[in-house]
Amino acid sequence: MDAVNLIVKRQVKKPVKTMYLYHQEGDSGVSYPEMVLALGYFDGVHRGHQEVIRTAREIASIKGKALGVMTFHPHPKTVLSSKVKEENMRYITPLPEKEEQLSKEQADYLFIVHFDKLFAALEPQEFVDQYVIGLHAVHVVAGFDFSYGRMGKGTMETLPFHSRKKFEQTTVGKVTDKDQKISSTLIKESILEGKIENANRLLGRSYSIGGKVVEGEQRGRTIGFPTANVQINEPYLVPAVGVYAVQMKIRNAWYNGVCNIGYKPTFHDEKSPNPEIEVHLFDFNEDIYGENVIVHWHAFIRGEKKFSSAEELVEQISQDKEKAKCILQSSLAP
Q1: Which of 19, 109, 237, 240 sits at a 20 to 30 Å CA gap from 100?
Q2: Which backbone phi and psi does 198 adopt, to 5 degrees?
Q3: Which parts of the sequence belong to the Riboflavin kinase domain (predicted)?
Q4: Residues spanned by CATH 2.40.30.30 within the chain?
Q5: Where in the chain is the domain with CATH 3.40.50.620?
């Protein structure tokens, strides 16, 4: 078998070796050890995905081999469908966030394969030859619904045939929660419907969004509730309009708060193109304009509504703040 037919465009130095692979003619020049390879798209890196990687990690430990995790970017829909554009895609974990989450899974190698038309045209055998056997995989682990190769013709049932007897495989069955299959689709639906507690349970952690604090209308300061206006910096899914109990990370420290996602109908008759994310932090009074922050979403409190006056809004925010404090005290208790 020839060396893997890939070009490594760049390598990021991390505890896990992150390799960005592009399908092109030529030898990558990189030599890999024998490894157990976990395969999947892994948007969300949810509990089902974690089970795939955990299984691969256990097998790698037993065999004394390296652990590799392979994912793909951008989303196949953006390549295979003329109706879906990458600039319009929204992810549970945009690529930097997915890398961050996967780097916590104790892999030796993280392979991020560029999904383009050349890659999509690979026959199942070509994918296995180049991206599995070529990476010295001795065992492959994936979910029961994983597919590979042109038009997804390769499945976990056909993988033994395509393996050329070079590696073994383990298929991870359906991981469920309350009799429902845990899936990225189900988590996306929960986020978009504001069912954050449900999304967090399926993820196995709090849903998070990264962004930068930018100047807003500064109206919150005039009514006694200063807010940080968070402008997201990656194509995250934004939860449904409403009020949430949140935490926000600033300069490596976490602060509790309450967040409103919406259009501020009390002060605006017309909707802006996108809802704003405004976080009021408890017991915090620092200038953080321009700071990169991370928001963790813990619980939905209520939907957005239009109030008859600023005074009525202030009263409601006070109630939201107390409710958020109770929620966070309960959910963060050891």
Answers
A1: 240
A2: -65, -45
A3: 202-329
A4: 180-331
A5: 6-173
Per the DSSP assignment, residues forming a β-bridge with 232 are: 211
CA distance 188 to 194: 10
Burial class (CB in 10 A: 0-12, 13-18, 19+), 274: exposed
- pLDDT per residue as tens digits for the range 40-54: 999 999 999 999 999
> What is the per-residue pLDDT across 100-128, written as a single tens digit (0 to 9) for each?
999 999 999 999 999 999 999 999 999 99
Average pLDDT of the chain is 90
Spatial neighbors of 222 by CB under 8 A, at least 6 apart, are none
CA angle 93, 97, 99 (to 5 degrees): 110
Report the 10 Å Cβ neighbour count for 25: 7
**CA 127 to CA 150: how far, in whole Å?**
9
The answer to whether the beta carbons of residues 170 and 55 sit under 8 Å apart is yes
With vertex at residue 326, the alpha carbon angle to CA 287 and CA 267, rounded to the nearest 5 degrees, is: 55
CA dihedral 214, 215, 221, 223 (to 10 degrees): -100
Length of the chain: 334
230: DSSP letter? E
CATH class of 180-331: mainly beta
CATH fold for domain 6-173: Rossmann fold (3.40.50)
Most distant pair of Cα atoms in the chain: their distance: 74
